[in-house]
Amino acid sequence: MQPETTQLFDRLSKFKWFANVGTRYPEGADLLRANSWEDSLDWCQNPLTEWANIQGGLLLYSKVSTTNDTRFLQWNQVARSLIEPTQRLMESVILPAIPLPKTPQPITNIIMSHISGSLIECEYRDCAPEIQLFNTLLKYYEKGHFPCGWVCNHEDDFPDKAIIVLW
Questions:
Q1: Which of 17, 40, 61, 65 could staple 148 via S-S, CB 3.0–4.6 A?
Q2: Which of 132, 130, 86 is nearest to 111 (CA)?
Q3: What does residue 102 show for φ and ψ, rounded to 5 degrees?
Q4: Quick count: other Cβ atoms within 10 Å of Cβ 158?
Q5: Which domain of life is it from (predicted)?
Q6: Distance CA 117, CA 145 (A)
C-alpha cells in the first residue's frame, strides 16, 4: 500500500461522517440537493448514478491499462489489498455514523464505491494524477455531507459537466 493511501485511511477515519446532511453546502452552485435519506436512497439507486460510478472507475482503469503495463499488472493485487481495510473502516466508522436504524444496501454500496474509488485513485496517482474523480467527492464527505448521485445530460458530459447530488 502506498504511504499516501495509508494517510488517506487515517484521514477518512477522522471525518465527521454525515454530520451535516440536510444542511446547505457552503459552496458550489453546481450541486443538486437531495431532500431526505429516502431521497438520497432514490439517487443511489438511480441508473445514472450507478452508471457514473462504474464509468468513474473505468477512467482510471483505462488510463493505467494503456500507459503503465507494470502497474496495470498489479491492479487486482492492489484492489484486493484494499478490501479488508476498507470494510473495517465502513463497519467501524462510516456505517455507525448514518442516522438510520438500518442502512439500506444501495447507500452502503455507493459509499463503498466512493471510498474504494478514492483509495485506488490514491494508489495509482503515480500513473494517472489527473484522474481524481472519487477523491473530489471526499471534500463533501469531509464536510459531513453525502454525495448520493449524479446528473448529466449526455454520457459525453461525464465527468466534466456532471452535477453531484448532495444530501
A1: 40
A2: 86
A3: -145, 125
A4: 19
A5: Bacteria
A6: 18
C-alpha cell at 40: 438520497
**Do 43 and 165 contact (CB within 8 A), yes or no?**
yes
Global pTM value:
0.91
Stated as kind and residue range, the H or E segment containing 18 is none
Q: Where are the alpha helices (DSSP H) in 2-148?
A: 3-13, 37-45, 47-67, 69-72, 75-89, 105-123, 133-142
Rounded Cα gap, residues 115 and 121, in angstroms = 10
From the list 133, 162, 151, 137, the residue with the least C-alpha distance to 58 is: 133
| Surface-to-core class of residue 95, CB atoms within 10 Å of its CB (0-12 exposed, 13-18 middle, 19+ buried) | middle
Helix (H) or strand (E) holding 32: strand 31-33
C-alpha dihedral over 100, 41, 149, 31, to 10 degrees? -70
Question: Cell digits for 1?
Answer: 500500500
